[in-house]
Design brief:
Layout lengths: L7 E5 L3 H13 L3 E5 L2 H10 L4 E5 L7 H11 L4 E6 L2 H10 L4 E4 L4 H12 L8
Parallel strand pairs: 1-2, 1-3, 3-4, 4-5
Length: 129
């Protein structure tokens, strides 16, 4: 019997240091992570590949995280969405526009991020520890 396939996360974060930091933390937690630096780069990946979770910053150039989530809902309706942001005002907009998406406000501890990702994905049938 083969080991379960790790959950796949598409991380869209325009800040290079934050993107690397989050990618490392999620990989250490056992997730397969694909990263992009903007929403427009994420759309073709969502069209071509299967992801269990879209983890997106809200404020990004070219296409913000909310618009990206709307594309994701159309392209890949089974992909769950979670936002990260450093702006309180956009948290309210995200909650209104994407009521099923979790919003994690910066700054946050990496363990909190990993716990929220686990909670978001735990409804999936491929749970593994």
């Amino acid at each position: 019997m083969s080991a379960p396939t790790p959950f796949r996360i598409l991380l869209a974060e325009d800040d290079e240091a934050m993107r690397a930091y989050l990618e490392r933390a999620l990989q250490n937690a056992g997730y397969e992570v694909v990263t992009v630096d903007r929403g427009t780069a994420a759309v073709p990946l969502l069209e071509e590949s299967r992801f269990d979770l879209l983890l997106s910053d809200i404020v990004m150039p070219e296409m913000d995280g909310i618009e990206l989530a709307q594309h994701c809902n159309k392209i890949s309706p089974t992909t769950k969405v979670m936002f990260i942001t450093g702006f309180a005002a956009v948290t309210l907009k995200a909650s209104r526009e994407q009521p099923h998406a979790k919003v994690l406000s910066k700054p946050f501890h990496l363990r909190d991020l990993v716990l929220e990702v686990q909670r978001t994905l735990e409804g999936d049938a491929r749970l593994w520890l």
